User: Which sequence fits this backbone?
């Protein structure tokens, strides 16, 4: 027997701001909300992993031990970085060197995530070619 990931939890002081940011980044929708406690976002009409944005009283103070890696879907890494920055992300330095293939950013409350260099289409093409 094994387990499956049901949800990824992101702590937030401003639930709405963080939930709206991630919903816009991923093209997901709010599926559940308990005011001042939790907002759940997920792909519309698709089963699978969701993100729970959970209210906490404190702000973020240290680098995340777990973070999301995302891939551009329908665009390049550079275009996706530009889009996500316009949504409220900001560059983040977690000690990555200048020669890495990903771009490290932080959401509006400082939670780090990476945009990978290869798009969803690049990975799919490799799988279909193999």
Assistant:
């Amino acid at each position: 027997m094994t387990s499956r990931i049901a949800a990824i939890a992101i702590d937030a002081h401003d639930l709405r701001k963080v939930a709206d940011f991630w919903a816009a980044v991923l093209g997901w929708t709010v599926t559940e909300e308990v005011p001042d406690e939790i907002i759940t976002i997920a792909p519309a009409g698709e089963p699978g992993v969701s993100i729970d944005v959970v209210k906490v009283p404190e702000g973020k103070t240290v680098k995340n031990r777990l973070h999301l890696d995302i891939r551009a879907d329908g665009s390049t890494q550079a275009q996706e970085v530009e889009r996500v920055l316009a949504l409220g992300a900001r560059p983040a330095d977690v000690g990555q060197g200048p020669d890495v293939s990903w771009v490290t950013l932080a959401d509006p409350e400082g939670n780090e995530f990476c945009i990978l260099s290869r798009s969803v289409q690049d990975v799919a093409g490799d799988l279909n070619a193999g």
